[in-house]
Amino acid sequence: MADTMQFDLVSPERRLASVQAREVRIPGADGDLTAMPDHSPLITTLRPGILTVVSAEGTTDYAVTGGFAEISAAGASVLAERAMPKGEVTAADMDGLIADATSEAGEAPAEGKDAANKLVADLQALKAALGL
Amino acid sequence: MPSLKDLKNRIESVKSTRKITKAMQMVAAAKLRRAQEAAESARPYAERMNAVMSGLAASVGGSDSAPRLLAGTGGDQTHILVVMTAERGLCGGFNSSIVKLARVKAAELLKAGKTVKILTVGKKGREQLKRDLGSHFVAHVDLSEVKKLGYDNAQGIARDLIHRFDAGEFDVATIFFNRFESVISQIPTAQQVIPAKFDTEDGEGASTLYDYEPSEEEILADLLPRGLATQVFTALLENGASEQGARMSAMDNATRNAGDMIDKLTIQFNRSRQAAITNELIEIISGAEAL
Question: Is A104 on the interface with B (CB under 8 A)?
Fold first, then answer.
């Protein structure tokens, strides 16, 4: 069994990471999950959270907001709407995102209300987790 | 016959025009490189997105529960044309070629008795379409303040489109932009984005059987708006690169034309100066002979 897999983290604007990873911890919409080599093929959506990549060089954390992850036996790729290395996120960034999400939640139709409110809560949790 | 002074002024003014067009060409070249890089780095995301979506769309598409963004409203009475052009001119046929394509499409639809709505992105297209299709305008997106195109800009446009779609304002959305082929060739392209269409050429998405978390439908419902934003973003970036490419070649032509003009005017100037000198000499000589 291979002990590393190809991991790509891409956002619409750039490719943030492309490394051989031992494991990747992904904040899935239905709960966190860890992808390791030879994982069964899976596609999941993401919630805002911290994505951790463990590779030979060490552990790297990224803050991601929505998007999705595609995991197969050979590797994992995460397509995040917004992704930044943990250290580069500022409190102002997060506040902006939270404000956007909050106003969105206010306008959301009844059936989308829960999802929109959850997004706000997830963003706030992410902010807290980042220690901002 | 223009006087020597006039010619001299003329040459000077063409020379400064040449300086300006040369500078614009170089600026466009630098911007083109940046625009190409941006388009390049956006590509992996768009490709993956497309692959996953086409896989999903193939498996869900047939069922009744398929989201409306994919299945459409069932009608095709109202069309919205999203015409993406530049904010500035002086880029050759760049804006006109998109406008022309959009105009042909609009005429076709109107002839078939459909309702046409137009959303313009970029000032130049709006100006050109205003006269004959102005009554069909529904909105305009101004990107003149935007220094660097970001995903946010695309997301804004996509969100606006989805709002309108949900409100039942249109059935089919098509985006018009220039696909960047090379500096000298940009291809005006019309791409239908709602209901979503995918290239199914690479069977990669379909060959692996994925588990989906949450369900396929939910993922698809979540992904379709993102997919739309990605398509708009790709189109904007392609358009950005095309604009700079078109401007670069237009300015290159202008610089060359100015050079030719200067050569011609210089010859004319030299000839008239020589003629004046010859004239003077003849006068002196014939004056001396007369004595």
Answer: no
Residue pair A79/B49 in contact (Cβ under 8 Å)? The answer is: yes
Annotated catalytic residue: which of B91, B98, B118, B241? B91
Per-residue pLDDT of chain A (132 residues; tens, 9 = 90+): 568 899 999 888 888 888 999 989 999 888 889 998 888 888 888 888 889 999 888 898 998 888 889 888 888 889 988 888 888 888 888 888 888 888 877 777 777 777 778 888 888 888 887 777
> Domain A5-86 belongs to what topology?
ATP Synthase; domain 1 (2.60.15)
Domain extents in chain B: 22-250
CA of B238, closest CA in chain A: separation in Å? 13
Distances A69 to A39, A85, A131, B88, B256 between C-alpha atoms, Å: 13, 17, 25, 39, 52
pTM: 0.86
- Enumerate the residues of chain A whose CB falls inside 8 A of the CB of residue B151: 11-13, 81-82
Q: How far is A131 from chain B (nearest CA, A)?
A: 26
pLDDT digits (tens, 9 = 90+) for B237-284: 999 999 999 999 999 999 999 999 999 999 999 999 999 999 999 999
In whole angstroms, give the CA distance from residue B14 to residue B4: 15
DSSP character for B229?
Answer: H
Specify the fold of B22-250: Pyruvate Kinase; Chain: A, domain 1 (3.40.1380)
